[in-house]
Design a protein that fits this description.
E1 component of the 2-oxoglutarate dehydrogenase (OGDH) complex which catalyzes the decarboxylation of 2-oxoglutarate, the first step in the conversion of 2-oxoglutarate to succinyl-CoA and CO(2). Keywords: Glycolysis, Oxidoreductase, Thiamine pyrophosphate. It comes from Microvirgula aerodenitrificans. One of its GO terms (biological process) is glycolytic process. Belongs to the alpha-ketoglutarate dehydrogenase family. With 940 residues, the chain is of the alpha/beta class. It folds into four domains: 166 residues, no CATH class; 294 residues, Thiamin diphosphate (ThDP)-binding fold, Pyr/PP domains (Rossmann fold), CATH 3.40.50; 178 residues, Rossmann fold; 129 residues, Rossmann fold (3-Layer(aba) Sandwich), CATH 3.40.50.11610. The strands form five sheets. Strands 3-9-10-8-7-4-6-5 form an eight-stranded mixed sheet. It has a seven-stranded mixed sheet with strand order 14-11-15-16-18-17-22, sandwiched between helices. Helix 2 runs antiparallel to helix 4 and helix 30 packs across helix 33. The chain is globular.
């Protein structure tokens, strides 16, 4: 009878919160409630056993709803009350099940091949509801727009909302406000688009353009690769919808990244590239000749597109065949543009990424890019993701071999992104979820994902026969009339268009294509937008452009004072306090400048001149080797933001920005991001620092496909700087070599710069030169770890107030150059090993010359230095790397061109090795001694 008493006495009115609290206590510890309540809750739990959703959520909701509607049980016997309440709880559990699992029964697949395995939780019988309950009226809890209704009505509403052409995954979101937003948006609309006739005709026009272009190219350029969009034409309508509506939210720029599939369609039908220009590329006659160029489905484009609420600048990023690698590049470009606009709310520039289904979860760079999305140094305010899910993946994949997750989009759950699945055969539904994605992104500044399930009419490319591996799927595709045909049938049935109207759209589009034109003007001409980049000052310039990089003494000392002064009450770590005292002495000329101070002064001088500095890496705040200390931490305060002080941000009121970031542990995504940032910000010094130089191995795709070749393929200039610790100190294979040979192998056409500085002043002038010259090429700095604290490599104050970066540093100690018999050429820290050996042996006839810049090779400067030694019969290249690595084989031909007819060129270094370095200190020292002895012993 206690159950009856509980049912009649406590589950109503103001007692509901009390019961909820009791239930929470029970969930934590069943013994904490009385036996009667424990028995009651045990029965509720038993009714809920086996469900996959959150167990107490529907029960809590039932308490709330019962409190609102006490009349349901007021006049019924206790037994009837208990049964009715169980039914009510079951209805609420059913609603929760549809919210969590409804996408499993959604009609997402145009081919109707998708797995339709049973989902018991979506069956009312699973929750104890029968046909006899269908006419009974129940409360719906928090369901939007239907406070109560018959079970039949509730079930129909749930299926319409969660199991139609739109399927939703959002219950994984931890933030309640975001979760409620998605719930309200789709439950309030029943996931049903309601466009007027004009909007539907516009959608038809977009889908028609997409299909007609593909079919036109298929007949005009038979067999040529174009990675057709056929089967996914709704994407073009969705992008048009996004562009036309984003301006209403204050968006000024959309930066798009995508791989091959549908790219040509986007170029023509979304960005307004002239068809005749595309046709010229098919015929091998590009409008702009680049040193190497690229295939047409890698090319980027930008345009200003008119909308009802203002122009929208849309830029499609260049992308190589490495599919998703463009994604962090786009994010970096977006962040730079937001910075340039001072768009701190991140609403004026929005990234849009278009993915393939297999690549989305298959390529690890997306995990890295998602991981960047919420961090302070990399966030862009959320990205709109569109997955073109053709259900085949890359080439011939079966989903059982493609991933280990149910959906291609499951990786997005790592950042709590809502995932909106949609049937690509329903262009209106695709546009509808695009609108929802836009509004969610602009509301919460977070990522959102659209999974457009479609198909791929042709093979991986136009020369591939998919029937070889997917016969059953492609039999269905062969019978599919096409997205446009199905949409036309629907519009004709609704009286929106006639068959003649639809056919005329095709005729008009084809006629325009025959002329190489568009049906109508879709881009703005003679329009100049704000914040447009101008790269012309950096075109046609030379690396040796004369540039003043020295800092006047008064400026150096003034900046040094700022850099070494702490806020009142700030307690530095003892090591930092000692470092600041030393830096004061450096500025006073009392001791030489170390590398940390030289680097810091370089940044200080640049930000005062208006050049922003952005430095990122896995431990860049203090410096991987604890030499930089750009961020100082108050030892009396724990929180980073409250207890940190950055002197370089506190130089003056009108300085440029300085940002140093301790990045995530993903070199590929971070380096690609910084490349994208640098490509969109020519007047900022953008630096990526590897923790150890060989950590760049994990970012090799970004290096090969973008950094070293972006200019020759796409005409994209970039001033990105990479600092790669490099130096053989017996630390083993992974902490020695930055793989200098790889960068030199990639050098051609003055595409990048590779430098190995040997003094602190060289580092200072090198960083300033990178910005002060009208020259923007990627800079690779192979930086010695040992020299950061090596006294011989420190520089006097005068080296900063006078002078410049020296591509070659000549012999400075020998007084009689004419007596020199051998000239040693080297780069990096090995110079000091050679110098010390020469001093110890009191050798006077061997000169040592440092080649600080390995590329572009300083031919004239080295020739001038070698000319100082007319009696030298030997020129020897000395390196600490193994013979098959390092610079030797990459610059040998340049050195041979420098020596005279009576001179010989030789080598000293470690023997060739499969490993970058040895792991035994004893062997390391023995190898070092051997090649130093060889360098210091003249031949007879």
């Amino acid at each position: 009878m206690m159950q009856a008493a509980i049912g009649q006495s406590y589950l109503f009115g103001g007692n509901a919160p009390f019961v909820e609290e009791l239930y929470e206590q029970y969930l934590n510890d069943p013994s904490s409630v009385t036996a009667e309540w424990r028995d009651y809750f045990d029965k509720l739990q038993a009714a809920d056993s086996g469900a996959r959703d959150v167990p107490h959520l529907p029960i809590q909701e039932s308490f709330i709803q019962l409190a609102r509607s006490p009349r349901v049980f007021a006049s019924k016997p206790a037994e009837a009350t208990w049964e009715a309440m169980q039914k009510q709880v079951s209805v609420l559990k059913l609603i929760t099940a549809y919210r969590v699992l409804g996408a499993r029964w959604a009609t997402l697949d145009p081919l109707k091949r998708m797995d339709t395995s049973p989902v018991p939780e979506l069956d009312p019988a699973y929750h104890g509801l029968t046909d006899a309950d269908m006419a009974a009226v129940f409360n719906t809890g928090s369901f939007v727009g239907l406070s109560q209704g018959s079970l039949s009505e509730i079930l129909g509403t749930l299926k319409q909302t969660y199991c139609g052409n739109i399927g939703l995954e959002y219950m994984h979101i931890m933030d309640s406000e975001q979760k409620r937003w998605v719930q309200n948006y789709f439950e309030g609309s029943r996931s049903t688009p309601r466009y007027d006739a004009d909007a539907r005709r516009r959608i038809l026009k977009q889908v028609t353009a997409a299909e007609t272009l593909e079919r036109y190219l298929h007949t005009k350029y038979v067999g040529q690769k174009r990675f057709s969009l056929e089967g996914g034409e709704s994407m073009i309508a969705a992008l048009d919808h996004l562009i036309q509506n984003a301006t209403r939210f204050g968006v000024k720029e959309l930066i798009v990244g995508m791989a091959h599939r549908g790219r040509l369609n986007v170029l023509v039908n979304t960005l307004g590239k002239l068809p005749r220009d595309l046709f010229a590329e098919f015929e091998g006659k590009p409008s702009v000749e680049l040193p190497s160029g690229d295939v047409k489905y890698h090319m980027g484009f930008s345009a200003d597109i008119p909308t009802q609420t203002g122009p929208m600048h849309v830029s499609l990023a260049f992308n190589p065949s490495h599919l998703e690698i463009v994604n962090p590049v786009v994010e970096g470009s977006v962040r730079a543009r937001q910075q340039r606009r001072k768009d701190n709310d991140r609403k004026e520039v929005v990234p849009v990424l278009i993915h393939g289904d297999a690549a989305f979860g298959g390529l690890g760079v997306n995990q890295g890019t998602f991981n960047l999305s919420g961090t302070r140094g990399y966030g862009t305010g959320g990205t709109v993701h569109l997955v073109v899910n053709n259900q085949v993946g890359f080439t011939t994949s079966d989903t059982r071999d493609m991933r280990s997750t149910l959906y291609a989009t499951d990786i997005a759950k790592m950042v709590d992104a809502p995932i909106l699945h949609v049937n690509g055969d329903d262009p209106e539904a695709v546009c509808f979820v695009m609108q929802a994605a836009l509004e969610f992104r602009m509301t919460f500044k977070r990522d959102v994902v659209i999974d457009m399930v479609c198909f791929r009419k042709l093979g991986h490319n136009e020369g591939d026969d998919p029937m070889l591996t997917q016969p059953m799927m492609y039999k269905k595709i062969a019978k599919h009339p096409g997205v446009r045909a199905r949409y036309v049938e629907r519009l004709i049935a609704d009286g929106v268009v006639t068959a003649a109207d639809a056919d005329q759209l095709i005729a008009n589009y084809r006629a325009a294509l025959d002329k190489g034109e568009h049906v109508e003007q879709t881009v703005l001409s003679n329009y100049t937008r704000d914040h447009k980049l101008d790269w012309t000052p950096f075109m046609g310039t030379h690396w040796a452009h004369p540039t003043e990089t020295a800092l006047p003494l008064s400026d150096l000392q003034r900046l040094s004072e700022k850099l070494t002064t702490l806020p009142e009450g700030f307690k530095p770590h003892p090591t930092v306090a000692k470092l600041l005292t030393a830096r004061k002495a450096m500025a006073a000329g009392e001791q030489p400048f170390d590398w940390g101070m030289a680097e810091t002064l370089a940044y200080a001088g640049l930000v005062e001149l208006g050049y922003g500095v952005r430095l990122s890496g896995e431990d860049s705040g203090r410096g991987t080797f604890s030499h930089r200390h750009a961020v100082l931490h108050d030892q009396n305060r724990e929180r980073w933001d409250a207890g940190a002080y950055v002197p370089l941000r506190n130089l003056s009121d009108n300085q440029a920005d300085f940002l140093v970031i301790d990045s995530i542990l993903n070199e590929e995504a971070v380096l690609a991001y910084e490349y994208g940032y640098a490509c969109s910000s020519p007047n900022e010094l953008i630096i990526w620092e590897a923790q150890f130089g060989d950590f760049a191995n994990g970012a090799q795709v970004a290096i090969d496909q973008f950094i070293v070749s972006g200019e020759t393929k796409w005409g994209r200039l970039c001033g990105l700087t990479m600092i790669l610790p490099h130096g053989y100190d017996g630390q083993g294979p992974e902490h020695s070599s930055a793989r200098v040979e790889r960068y030199l192998q990639l050098c051609a056409e003055h595409n990048i710069q590779v430098v190995m500085p040997s003094t602190a002043a060289q580092m200072f002038h090198l960083l300033r030169r990178q910005m002060l010259r009208p020259y923007r090429k990627p800079l690779v700095i192979c930086l010695s770890k040992r020299l950061l604290r090596y006294k011989e490599s420190m520089s006097p104050l005068t080296d900063f107030t006078d002078g410049a970066f020296k591509p070659v540093i000549g012999e400075a100690e020998l007084q009689e150059p004419k007596k020199v018999k051998r000239v040693l050429l080297c780069a990096g820290q090995v110079y000091y090993d050679l110098l010390n050996a020469r001093r110890e042996r009191d050798i006077k006839d061997i000169a040592i010359v440092r080649v600080e810049q390995l590329y572009p090779f300083p031919t004239e400067q080295l020739a001038a230095e070698l000319a100082r030694f007319p009696s030298a019969r030997e020129v020897m290249w000395v390196q600490e790397e193994p013979k098959n690595q390092g610079a030797w084989y990459q610059i040998r031909h340049r050195l041979e061109a420098q020596i005279g007819p009576k001179q010989t060129l030789s080598f000293a270094g470690r023997p060739s090795s499969a490993s970058p370095a040895v792991g035994y200190m004893s062997k390391h020292i023995a190898q070092l001694k051997a090649f130093i002895d060889e360098a210091m012993t003249l031949g007879k």
